[in-house]
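Task card 7
Instruction: Convert sequence to structure tokens.
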Amino acid sequence: MRITDISRSRVASAMVRGYFHSFFSGQIDTLYPGKKRIEPKEYKQLLVNNFDNLSTQFVSVLFPILIRLNYSDLEFVTEDMKRRHFSETTSAKILLRYACGSKELYSLVTAEYQKQIFSLLNGHLQSVEDYYVDCPALIDKDCVPVSLAIRSIVRVQMQAYALGITQAKTGVKGLHQATVYRLMIAGMMALLHESPVNFEEENLEMMFRKVSLNADNFENLMNEMNQAYEDLV
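Output:
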């Protein structure tokens, strides 16, 4: 199956979900190493522990990636932000609205953000089944290249996972390779599919290829993962 363009809304939606799964996976890997099942009360406590800074950190990760998703002229963006007197004191809300590029996408991102919070308040991360209930369509009149979509989801998830680890403040800095692979497979599933993907004893490479849909997407995914990892370490 070859998808050349993806709905901008689907990309943004998958990015928000990917951020939460990745950030809290980083927290879990650091604070509950080796634990296979996290209890609902533990998810709720993680949310409480991070709530004061959650929106600011969310925007810090998504802002540059949304800018690249929604604006083609980065020099214009730089000059426009200067004209608007953006600074380190500019609120996260204003930054997010600007990065989204439209009221419609901003409303979508904030709604998706609230869905993730609601899931954590109920003691779990959002399941892929719940995500597919009302996620944006894969294709609509406002689309972006699939290569940009893959780059966006990889960068969000890698940076959010690393941030979750550092915000746990345990001194642990290493990335767990198994968690990174799990997050990337889940992110590609949310980005490129309309229903959960079933894996029947496939090896890791075949799982990546299956969620990627075709060889070009697989190569893009591998390249972006490697580059994002190098940038982080």
